[in-house]
Amino acid sequence: MKQTILVTGGTGFIGSHTVVELQQAGYKVVIVDNLSNSRADVVDGIEKITGVRPAFENVDCCDFKAMDDVFSKYGDIKGIIHFAASKAVGESVQKPLLYYRNNITSLLNILELMPRHGVKGIIFSSSCTVYGQPSAENLPVTENAPIQKALSPYGNTKQINEEIIHDYIHSGAPIKSVILRYFNPIGAHPSALIGELPNGTPMNLIPFVTQTAIGIRKQLKIFGNDYNTPDGTCIRDYIYVVDLAKAHVKAMARVLDNDDTDAVEIFNIGTGRGVSTLEVVEGFERATGVKVNWEYAPRREGDIEKVWADPEKANTVLGWKAETNLDDTLRSAWKWQLKLDEESKQGK
Ligand code: UD1
């Protein structure tokens, strides 16, 4: 058995897939989640996939004392993967203080507790949102592209948290960190035992596509077809959530087992492939054989026109590469939607 890892937000979308990959790689996992945007039965799904039930603590990372108690209770935690955060861009504009309080206080608490409990490494979930709209010469975007002023409080919390980690380590704190800048995570575990559980009407593209395909939503709106892109719709780098989860396992091993690396490292986690919204919708129809009712609608405020990753550093330095093609990824999202539909018919 490898080291014990604390995963905050471990019942969430990316968190749950990462817990699976950590356990399959031999790590012992303790999940901390306040279930504000996830369900307790996600732990059952993780257990079914891996055969191991991770420890679970229903705790809010903003509660310093409760977090202190979690570290004391498990004693041997060596690394943290910090997912727990509020993540709806639009909501963050409406409720900025909630976002600043949740996303920043939780990181401050964890960083302060790490040295007290001998925890060496933290992997932080950041986002390509820190790059804003990169200029043409910065596409695909590398880790050295300039950071641009955030367009939302959510995006700003990612930037501020990256700076907090840098400043703390620079001050001599005895910890190491890997910051992962995710592009657009999509899909679900191939078992369809865990996946994305959007709260209310989905804001993100893929859950909206699958909910439209199954008939929960009448029609998908593709926001904007007059962008400066080949088909006029926005371009993103859609990364399979299981591939993304595996990047965390690599990052954890690098932080805990490799003494020669820098105290803070940043990696883009994407495929390197820019795909338009229209290509996603058409790709979904092709891969699943299911039609999606859609139409063009005006641009969505705050959307970036095009961004995709240069994942070279993650490929060569971290030794990680996105492996799954878009069709398989979209099929996994559909399989998960079918599973949710089955559950709702059974009244679960
Ligand atoms: C945004 C954030 C990202 C954050 C993510 C999670 C930015 C630049 N990106 O990603 O940091 O992690 O949300 O919430 O702030 N689309 C439609 N119709 C829909 C939904 C989406 O056409 O109903 C289009 C969008 O206009 C966009 C693409 O699909 O071009 C992807 O949208 P979405 O899934 O919401 O992700 P981002 O906005 O890229």
TrEMBL record:
GO molecular function, a single term:
UDP-glucose 4-epimerase activity
Concerning InterPro entries, the annotation shows: NAD(P)-bd_dom, NAD(P)-bd_dom_sf, UDP_G4E
The chain positions of domain NAD(P)-binding read 6-331
Which superkingdom is the protein from? Bacteria
- Catalysed conversion reaction: UDP-alpha-D-glucose = UDP-alpha-D-galactose
- Give an example GO biological process: galactose metabolic process
One CC-aspect GO term:
cytosol
Q: Any idea which UniProt keywords this protein has?
A: Carbohydrate metabolism, Isomerase, NAD
What pathway annotation does it carry?
Carbohydrate metabolism; galactose metabolism
Q: Which cofactor does it need?
A: NAD(+)
Q: How does it assemble?
A: Homodimer.
Database matches in NCBIfam families? galE
Q: What family name appears in the similarity comment?
A: Belongs to the NAD(P)-dependent epimerase/dehydratase family.
Q: What is this protein called?
A: UDP-glucose 4-epimerase
Q: What is the lineage of its organism?
A: Bacteria, Pseudomonadati, Bacteroidota, Bacteroidia, Bacteroidales
Give me the gene this protein comes from. Answer: galE
